[in-house]
Design brief:
By secondary structure, the chain is α/β, with parallel strands linked by helices. The chain is built from 16 helices and 14 strands. The structure holds uridine-5'-diphosphate-xylopyranose (UDX). The site of uridine-5'-diphosphate-xylopyranose (UDX) has 20 residues, from helix 9.
């Protein structure tokens, strides 16, 4: 099939490369010229496992451009632009609306417009009046659908090819049929629904995962005071099939471009329609307090932090990515700077991105970090299991086993 993708961020690029590698002809559009040039020379603008190799492999089937007119022959157009938060936490739809404006100008023969960006229920259908601007009618001249993504950074290519499920919300029968055909070789449950339901499934999914994390952090904070290791609790409850062991790793909370933003957007929407979402609000509150526990435990061992050299291991919001968006390292570094600490930091992939936010701290090798008086572990990169912590005070936020050999070891919830 001829597929167009608008927005070549994580989601758009993975989706485009994924469909191209399945034999479709894909054209990706983005406004960022640098990004387009990189992609067309086989370089990925982001670090993602296996992506560079895949991009080179699909050379004939995938092309990037800044010209939306190149999507004139696309039978399916996926909208994968960002949906950031506004100041008040509500969703900012300006990129999605701009994409709809652009698409309205190139509509010709029937094609399906598919929103893949995470959007609050009601958004996709609200785009109809923009898409219909040039006398084209939804359901007749073009189709409309919503197909949320569930890609995890770091394993997103694998998630693309082996999803747990595929959700397709469609306005018209023809859109549903075309998307069913596109996904026919994917071996997983496929859910067909209306558009609003598909939009909400994505929010409910991310909110539930966030709930699991804040829940286990709450239990972990209680465990810490009782001298219990919360990881043993996670194991004990995780065997219950109704609960499941995944996403019960206690620590300093969740970050990334999705969970905090999506849960806040659902809170804002809920308030707007007259329901106070108390549980969702607490999930965010717990998540915002959790990283600050690091400082509390650090002060237990070094009461006056001013002028002390503190090492940080891990800046990415999770391992296997260079992404620092909403990383829990951000509030921790801010707090340490307030205390006038000398910060030395290391991350295998994310130093470049973190430096843009905090150019004033020192970035160095893990060996140099081990010379600091105390070390804070903020991301569970595998290589942190190979360091020798025996001379250090370690405040561990992610459950690194080797760190338990430290001179003084303090787990955040254990
Ligand atoms: C998430 C969803 O998993 C994905 O389905 C959706 O499409 C986008 O958002 P991602 O942001 O890549 O994916 O990260 P994920 O692996 O889900 O982790 C999010 C955060 O939760 C990370 O900061 C991670 O460290 C934290 N986390 C995860 C925990 O603190 N404990 C856990 O047990 C699991």
């Amino acid at each position: 099939m001829n597929i167009g993708i608008i927005g070549l961020g994580y989601v758009g690029l993975i989706t485009g490369v994924g469909f191209a590698s399945l034999g479709n002809k894909v054209i990706g559009v983005d406004i960022d010229n640098n990004k387009i040039n990189k992609i067309n020379t086989g370089e990925t603008p982001i670090y993602e496992q296996g992506l560079e190799e895949k991009l080179k492999e699909v050379n004939d089937n995938f092309r990037a451009t800044t010209n939306i007119n190149d999507l004139k022959d696309s039978e399916i157009i996926f909208v994968c632009v960002g949906t950031p938060s506004k100041e008040d936490g509500s969703i900012d739809l300006k990129y999605v609306r701009r994409a709809a404006e652009d698409i309205s100008k190139i509509l010709g023969s029937y094609r399906v417009i598919v929103i893949k960006s995470t959007v609050i229920p009601g958004t996709t259908e609200s785009l109809i009046k923009i898409l219909e601007k040039n006398d084209k009618k939804v359901g007749e001249d073009f189709g409309l659908a919503m197909n949320p993504e569930f890609l995890k950074e770091g394993s997103s290519l694998k998630d693309f090819f082996e999803p747990d499920r595929i959700v397709i919300g469609s306005y018209d029968e023809k859109s549903k049929e075309i998307l069913a055909e596109l996904y026919k070789d994917f071996n997983c449950p496929k859910l067909f629904a209306n558009i609003k339901t598909a939009e909400m499934i994505k929010y409910a999914s991310n909110s539930f995962l966030g709930t699991k994390i804040s829940f286990i952090n709450e239990i972990g904070n209680i465990c810490k005071k009782l001298g219990i290791d919360v990881y043993a609790i996670a194991e004990g409850i995780g065997y219950d099939k109704r609960i499941g062991r995944e996403f019960l790793n206690a620590g300093i909370g969740f970050g990334g471009s999705c969970f905090p933003k999506d849960i806040k957007a659902l809170i804002a929407k809920s308030n707007e329609i007259g329901h106070e979402p108390k549980l969702l609000q607490e999930i965010i509150k717990i998540n915002e307090k959790q990283p600050l526990k690091k400082i509390e435990f650090l002060k237990k061992h070094i009461p006056n932090l001013k002028g002390k050299e503190i090492g940080i291991l891990g800046l990415a919001f999770k391992p296997e990515t260079d992404d620092v968006r909403e990383s829990r390292a951000i509030p921790i570094v801010k707090e340490l700077l307030k205390e006038e600490v000398i910060i030395k930091a290391y991350d295998p992939k994310a130093i470049g991105n973190f430096k843009k936010l905090f150019p004033q701290i020192k970035y160095c090798s893990p060996e140099e970090i081990l010379n600091s008086e105390a070390i804070l572990i903020l991301t569970n990169w595998k290589e942190f299991e190979n360091l020798d912590y025996r001379k250090n005070i370690v405040i561990d936020g992610r459950g690194i086993l080797k760190a338990k050999e430290a001179k003084i070891y303090e787990g955040i919830c254990w």
